[in-house]
Amino acid sequence: MADTTHPIAPLELDAQGIRLRPWRPDDAPALFEAVRESIASISPWLPWLHDDYDLDDSATWIADCQAGRERGDTHAFGLFDAQGRALGDVALNRIDPKRGSANLGYWVRESAQGQGVATRAARAIADFGFDVLGLIRIEIVVAVDNVASRRTAERLGAHFDCISPNRIIHRGEAAAAAVYSLLPPEREDRPSGPVLEEGNLRLRAYRPSDLHALHAALHESMDTIGRWQGWCTPAYSLDDARRWIAQTRLAWRGVGDECALVMADRASDELMGSIALNHWLPEYGMANLGYWVRQTQQEQGLATRAVRLLARHALRATDLRRLEIVVATDNQASRRVAEKAGAQLEGIARNRLILRGEPLDAAIYSLIAADLR
């Protein structure tokens, strides 16, 4: 039987024009140059980068990377542009084969920052970790105030797990860290949530292939959805849509609580809108229910049918006993949907919502099983 304890890594990984390859001893001068250039921007977060950092430190680091690679607990890659210039470093370390887990770290030299280098490189090495090393979880642990590295984790689609106290040593002191996690990508055909159908309406989980349809639906609907949803602006990007799809697919697997479904046409599978259960309070058997319909499909009763279909499922198939629909008081279209679905108006809550930094009063509706009979 072949020994598969330590899979052999490819010599290079491609990250959209950036080459990732293991550091070599003759890279020491290039690494030293990249590090020394970047003391001001990255030394606050990397304790090994100090004012006395010299060429021997670079050589020692490269030797440590090679030793870790041979042990199988670290895979570090230098980042190089098309001209062979060193741009930084990305690594999987603390690899635990028994648990299938690893830590992911990265840094980019100052002159190459702000160009998406870290995001592309981190995505490539994460794919390597899942596809070649067989990992099932990759963590990114970042100082809470390290905004740039946190943004990189978020652009990757990593899930924000928590702020973990005393998780790292920062400037000689125990410090809290933001912990993010990546899981292996799901197959397109693997369900991530229920499929509910009634007439020509299907509620189904988001798929990665919904990316462009989601983006187009929202950009079509700036005048209606954008009026009441602060995140729905002309700046909403494909990356935003990609992160949302990853987030909601994870929620159906128990990571996070933004459990959303596509409102789709059963015949064509066209994305017509979205409906979600979120803000779950399991101890009270309660969750929020929210919805939107793209502009070309509005005023056809779609949202009302979707609300009743998902509410019936949620109140039968889960421990939920109460669903709340919270709507800005002036959002008459969404209020009519709640009322037509059978939800009961319980009152007006002052300053219940925040829209573009301003507090808004909200109408509070509730749905229980008796409302749907």
Descriptive report:
This protein is an alpha+beta fold. It has 2 domains: 13-182, Gcn5-related N-acetyltransferase (GNAT) (Aminopeptidase), CATH 3.40.630; 196-372, Gcn5-related N-acetyltransferase (GNAT) (Aminopeptidase), CATH 3.40.630.30. Helix content is 29%, strand content 34%. It has helices at residues 28-37, 39-42, 55-71, 117-131, 147-155, 211-220, 225-228, 238-251, 302-317, 332-340, and strands at 13-15, 18-22, 75-80, 86-96, 101-108, 137-143, 159-170, 173-182, 196-198, 201-205, 259-265, 271-281, 286-293, 322-328, 344-355, 358-367. The strands form 2 sheets. An 8-stranded mixed sheet has the order 1-2-3-4-5-6-8-7, with helices on both faces. The protein has an 8-stranded mixed sheet with strand order 9-10-11-12-13-14-16-15, sandwiched between helices. It is elongated and about 75 Å long. This is RimJ/RimL family protein N-acetyltransferase. Residues 18-186, 201-371 form the N-acetyltransferase domain.
Task: Please identify which CATH superfamily of the largest domain we are dealing with.
Answer: Gcn5-related N-acetyltransferase (GNAT)
Largest sheet: 8 strands, mixed
Percentage beta strand: 25-35%
User: How would you classify the helix and strand content by structural class?
Assistant: alpha+beta
| Strand arrangement across the biggest beta sheet | 1-2-3-4-5-6-8-7
Q: Write down the overall geometry.
A: elongated
Cα Rg: 24 Å
**Tally of domains:** 2
User: What is the CATH third-level topology name of the largest domain?
Assistant: Aminopeptidase
Low-confidence runs of at least 5 consecutive residues: 1-10
- Please trace the helix and strand order, writing H or E for each element: EEHHHEEEHEHEEEEHHHEEEHEHEE
Mean pLDDT: 90
- E-strand count: 16
Organism: Dyella japonica
Domain N-acetyltransferase: 18-186, 201-371
Protein name: RimJ/RimL family protein N-acetyltransferase
